[in-house]
Design goal:
about 500 residues, alpha/beta, six-stranded mixed sheet, about 45% helix, globular, binds pyridoxal-5'-phosphate
Length: about 500
């Protein structure tokens, strides 16, 4: 399998090259030149395989320049019993006759980012060994909260790597902030940005494409790479759990072989839902992709009208990992929907950079409307969904998954579609204890998140994940705060 860029289809690179580089030089994103396909029979047969075996089969279709031994080694190191609390890695919980919650947060940082970021460092190390001639890698991360911690945990003390994480100073939950500022490891660095996630993401993109920093780094025998979902090595592991969920439904006889399902995803940077779309390209039977947003509903507007317009207010919400106005991975979807038309991609994303807006053509709109449904909800609705799901179904949702369930219910009410639906559950409720407890038990007399988490545990009879309890006594190591326009200088300082 070879890879090209969404803005340069003339490229033909191996997966080791695209994983090492993260983003293409001209600013485009790497995509496979074709999608491998699995037959219905192959999907049925996969139901008998473990998660690790499924991962080997699916990821193996893409990373064809990895030997079987290299790939197996990477995957076995990632999805261990020590790191994932659930033995099935990504368990599926039946919520109602039509809705199944795919719990993707049983990894070490309690968010779905672990599904990819436990594997990426291993993929990157092998890739670097193939193509980087002994250079060491500097991983730059812009995070809306969960990627930062998951990347730090994945890359800490990985030989020949350094990792720098930037998070929006006021844009993450107290628990998320503590997770990052207390991170251990010799090769890690964390800084807060005065700005929102988009500022952090643009800053990181600027650093990536700055020739000056690139050369400074080269002199130190270092290169940049990315652990954000613009990196192909982040996306490909996410395809696996959609097949895993489908196989679980088959095994439990909830669906028949070949039966179509819906996939509902609480969306920010469009990585998770894109992985579902890629699973569909490979043969997963999907009826609709339901894209759920919070009050930052730019994707809802886009999917409903074909107009992407980021000239709008930015709202901090109780689902902070989705507080995003520039969804990077949408570029990959549009590239596919235009049937790989790099001219159109360059035109639209050029307009986005210049004016903050673009409109796709009729052909793409038609395809979007056919395959996708989009909706959003505000914080009040999010909390109401957490409350009713807890009282009526005895299931505790985090704020992001609640957005997804809320939008799913709106979809059901609007369309009457009773297709079995998988709802991607992206975080443990204990990562957002203040909002979740407020939703189920009203205002509290403290904002100490550990006390709130304990109350939530007492009330729901569920356990606080060990990884979060440990934070209580962990020492804060990182206190640096950087103005977003000073990120370049900050990075130079840190790398000296
Ligand atoms: C990152 C994240 C999302 C958004 O996922 P994308 O792949 O960026 O669309 C949703 N929920 C949680 C909890 C997250 O951490």
């Amino acid at each position: 399998m070879k890879y090209k860029s969404t803005r340069d289809t003339g490229l033909s690179l191996e997966s080791a090259e695209v994983i090492s580089a993260g983003i293409s030089k001209e600013g485009g994103l790497f995509v496979p030149e074709a999608f491998p396909s699995l037959s219905g029979k192959e999907i049925e047969e996969m139901a008998a395989l473990s998660y690790i075996q499924k991962a080997r089969k699916i990821i193996g279709c893409y990373l064809t320049d990895f030997s079987d031994a290299e790939l197996s080694d990477c995957i076995e190191k990632a999805y261990t019993a020590e790191k994932f609390v659930s033995s099935s890695i990504a368990p599926l919980v039946k919520l109602s006759d039509t809705a199944y919650i795919l719990e993707l947060w049983h990894g070490p940082t309690c968010a779905f980012k672990d599904m990819a970021l436990q594997l990426l460092p291993h993929l990157l190390t092998v890739s670097a060994g193939k193509v980087l001639n002994g250079k060491s890698i500097v991983i730059l991360v812009a995070t809306s909260g969960d990627t930062g911690k998951a990347a730090l945990e994945g890359f800490k003390d990985v030989p020949n790597t350094k990792i720098l994480v930037f998070y929006p100073s006021e844009g993450v939950s107290a628990m998320q902030k503590l997770q990052m500022t207390t991170q251990d490891g010799e090769n890690v660095h964390v800084a807060a940005i005065l700005g929102n996630f988009d500022d952090a993401q643009s800053g990181v993109k600027n650093i990536f494409t700055s020739e000056e920093i690139r050369q400074t780094l080269a002199r130190q025998n270092q290169v940049f790479s990315s652990a954000n979902s613009i990196n192909w090595g982040r996306l490909v592991p996410q395809i696996v759990y959609y097949f895993s969920a489908y196989c679980d439904l088959l095994r439990e006889k909830e669906i028949k072989a070949g039966e179509k399902i819906n996939v509902v995803v609480p969306t920010g940077n469009f990585g998770n839902i894109l992985a579902a779309y890629y699973a569909y390209k490979m043969g997963l039977p999907v009826h609709k992709f339901i894209c759920a947003s919070n009050k930052n509903n730019i994707l809802t507007d886009f999917i409903r009208t074909g107009v992407y317009d980021k000239n709008r207010p930015f709202y901090p919400t109780c689902s902070p990992s989705m507080d995003i106005l520039i969804s990077s991975n949408l570029e990959r979807l549009l590239f596919d929907l235009t049937e790989c038309d790099e001219k159109k991609i360059k035109q639209w994303f050029g307009e986005l950079a210049k004016t903050g807006a673009y409109e796709v053509d009729e052909f793409v709109k038609q395809k979007l409307f056919e395959l996708f449904y989009a909706g959003f909800c505000d914080d009040e609705e999010t909390k109401a969904t957490i409350r009713t799901t807890f009282t009526e179904e005895n299931y505790l949702l985090d704020t992001h998954t609640a957005v997804a369930l809320n939008v799913y219910r709106k979809y059901m009410a609007e369309t009457g579609d009773d297709t079995k639906s998988i709802i991607a559950s992206t975080a443990s409720p204990y990562k957002f204890p203040a909002s979740v407890l407020e939703a189920v038990a009203g205002n509290q007399d403290t904002d100490d998140e550990f006390i709130l988490a304990q109350r939530l545990s007492d009330l729901s009879g569920t356990q606080i994940p060990d990884a979060l309890i440990h934070l209580r006594s962990a020492k804060v190591r990182f206190t640096q705060v950087v103005a977003s326009e000073n990120m370049v200088e900050a990075v130079k300082g840190i790398l000296k």
